[in-house]
Design a protein that fits this description.
Layout: H1 3-7, H2 13-27, E1 43-47, H3 53-58, E2 64-68, H4 72-81, E3 86-89, E4 92-93, E5 98-105, E6 123-132, E7 142-147, H5 153-159, H6 161-167, E8 170-174, H7 183-191, E9 194-198, E10 205-206, H8 212-223, H9 227-232, E11 241-246
Parallel strand pairs: 1-2, 1-7, 2-3, 4-6, 7-8
Antiparallel strand pairs: 5-6, 8-11, 9-10, 9-11
Length: 279
């Protein structure tokens, strides 16, 4: 068990969420580069909300944020620390509607961020949760879909196929060879005209020019480190997510004019603002 997993349950939820939001961009720098692929306005989707680091950043840019988080107490936490234009859906995103087993690590309740509908050796207990395809939400003006579900990414994409084909949003997808084969997701996105990009050294690089499986094999030990260690101690960059954009576009220039709307001021939203719980 990591240090964060041991002390996290003993701290107030709001403090844990704030710490995660502050530390997360240190080992997932793409979160600090949202302006490169997520315009202001529109709808942003966060699949796998966890402690809310992506949701809270997206709330600064998007007119509407829809976050799916199946772990009940984490969904409630996100709902309590985000502004009213964030909608938290307490369900797992996949390619069907119904109920599914969410697998949790034996030593935690979901705070480690490794819960999944796909069972692995580290999982010790299961929790029945509602599940649904993103297409069933009938979202419009979608600019970004971020997916981090530890092995179920392809099912999420399949369940969002109509939305993706209609809206052509940016797709930010966790891909780890140690968890799942990379080829199915790469083939699915390529078949729909998407091209992959990664951020290994502070510069966006076409995935076609970067050997992601070899990189992950060399640096897989970093993935075993906890949030605090990866954020505070020197470490080698471990690239485990790919940004997919429609072919012919690249990070930083794909969106053109901002998606504008009335009475929305993203600069007025800050992570340290107290938000009343919504009912």
């Amino acid at each position: 068990m990591t240090l964060a997993a041991r002390i996290g349950p003993r701290l107030p939820g709001r403090l844990v969420a704030a710490l995660a939001g502050g530390l997360y961009p240190r080992f997932e720098p793409e979160l600090g580069r949202l302006a490169d692929f997520c315009p202001t306005g529109g709808t942003a989707v966060d699949v796998g909300g966890w402690l809310g680091p992506w949701t809270r950043r997206l709330a600064r840019r998007a007119e509407r944020v829809v976050t799916l988080e199946p772990v009940p107490h984490l969904a409630r936490l996100i709902d309590s620390v985000t502004p009213p234009h964030v909608e938290v859906v307490p369900a797992a995103a996949t390619d069907r509607t119904g109920c599914a087993t969410l697998w949790l690590p034996a030593d935690g309740r979901g705070e480690r961020g490794v819960s999944s509908l796909v069972r692995r050796e580290l999982h010790g207990s299961g929790l029945d949760v509602p599940c649904l395809p993103l297409d069933s939400l009938e979202l419009d003006r979608v600019t970004l879909i971020k997916i981090d579900v530890d092995g179920g990414e392809l099912a999420v994409l399949r369940g969002a196929a109509r939305t993706i084909e209609r809206e052509l949003p940016a797709l930010f997808v966790e891909l780890e060879a140690r968890i799942q084969p990379l080829a199915p997701v790469l083939e699915w996105t390529a078949a729909r005209g998407y091209r992959g990009w990664v951020l290994p050294h502070g510069r966006w690089t076409p995935l076609a020019d970067f050997d992601l499986p070899a990189h992950q094999s060399r640096t897989s030990h970093v993935a075993e480190h906890g949030l605090l260690r990866r954020s505070l101690a020197p470490h080698r960059r471990y690239v485990n997510s790919v940004l997919f954009l429609p072919a012919g576009t690249r990070p930083g220039n794909r969106h053109g004019p901002e998606i504008r709307h009335r009475d929305f001021h993203p600069r007025g939203i800050h992570d340290d603002v107290h938000h009343e719980r919504r009912h």
